[in-house]
Design goal:
Elements lengths: L8 E3 L24 E5 L12 H12 L7 E5 L8 H11 L12 E4 L10 H8 L12 E6 L2 E6 L12 H7 L2 H17 L5 E5 L2 E2 L17 E2 L3 H4 L5 E5 L12 E3 L12 E4 L29 E5 L5 E3 L1
Parallel strand pairs: 2-3, 3-4, 6-7, 7-10, 8-9, 10-12
Antiparallel strand pairs: 1-14, 2-13, 5-6, 11-12, 13-14
Helix pairs in contact: 1-2, 2-3
Length: 317
């Protein structure tokens, strides 16, 4: 995995709330290995930027799994470039090839992004195309899992809209009421079943006014974000959300958001981490003098490793 940017943060998720309990330190039992998982996004099979997805994604997987066995690996949307059956076939070939994994991954998690809806048969292509990862059954758009005592929630977008900054109806098409109701039920379940734990949440589009790429009022461009999830997510400050979509570099400190000051305009109190892209990088317009694609943007490949420390803190590399 060619890496031109790096991100290393120690996240101390101790967020005060009158609605949910704060996250409590956890001392690991001696007989349990700490949680370890990885997050990548925007694989874009078959995008041909640089070496192309069929070269970059296997290289990414070999690199991100070389540090040890992973409990999970989440791919946070834009799995394909156009949502075709052929592109899903390429993805399955890569993710089912053991030679692409230096160490094993216990569970693979996928969510749909906006690019995955660019085809007339997108719904069927997603469910059927990813069935290899769900025992031959239709792959779900949204999931709830508990891994080593931690809740993992995935929520796909259900339409091809990029943002809702100018038109709020686009947000409700990407995240319709049915999805919002399911998310709410998952979060309630997670807070009840795993009290005092962070809730790991994976979706493609950044919530508005969180990490880099979600501040159209302050950044040039329309933003890569949606407002529709914020009212729900704000009730659960123990959330650590991982989102793709922007392709913005994770080496930028704005790519991690923890809004905890009630007096500021950063009124989203959960944690949001941008996940970059495995295929090519972008940047907000006018940030550099080469438009949204800086020099050698197609050589950038990024991802995140997330580790539970012995005292219960969560470290992101």
């Amino acid at each position: 995995m060619k890496k031109r940017f790096s991100l290393r943060y120690l996240i101390l998720v101790v967020l005060i709330s009158h609605v949910m309990p704060i996250v409590q330190p956890i001392i690991l039992a001696q007989d349990r290995q700490p949680l370890s998982f990885a997050v990548i996004s925007d694989t874009h099979f078959e995008n041909h930027a640089g070496d192309g997805a069929r070269v970059k994604v296997p290289r990414t997987l070999r690199n991100i799994t070389k540090y040890g066995q992973l409990d999970a690996l989440a791919v946070v949307g834009d799995l394909t470039n156009y949502g075709t059956a052929e592109e899903y076939g390429m993805l399955v070939d890569v993710f089912t090839d053991p030679d692409n994994f230096t160490n094993p991954v216990e569970k693979l998690l996928f969510v749909a992004g906006d690019h995955d809806w660019y085809n007339a048969d997108s719904r069927e292509n997603y469910m059927k195309g990813l069935s290899a990862f769900s025992d031959g059954e239709s792959y779900p758009f949204h999931t709830y899992n508990v891994i080593k005592g931690y809740p993992f929630i995935t929520l796909s977008v259900m339409n091809d809209n990029g943002n809702d900054t100018q038109d709020s109806s686009k947000g409700s098409r990407n995240y319709p009421q049915e999805s919002l109701n399911l998310l709410e039920s998952y979060l309630k379940k997670a807070s009840k079943e795993c009290p005092g734990k962070p809730i790991f949440f994976f979706t493609h589009v950044l919530p508005h006014a969180t990490a880099y790429g979600s501040w159209p009022e302050k950044e040039t461009g329309n933003g890569w974000c949606m407002k529709v999830l914020n009212p729900i997510l704000n009730r659960y400050p123990q959330i650590i959300a991982f989102c793709g979509h922007s392709h913005y570099p994770i080496g930028d400190p704005r790519s991690i958001h923890q809004g905890t000051n009630p007096g500021s305009d950063r009124q989203n109190f959960y944690t949001v981490v941008g996940t970059g892209s495995t295929t090519y990088s972008e940047i907000n317009p006018e940030a550099v003098n080469r438009g949204i694609h800086p020099w050698r943007f197609d050589e950038v490949t990024e991802g995140l490793l997330v580790d539970e420390l012995p005292n219960g803190d969560i470290m992101i590399r």
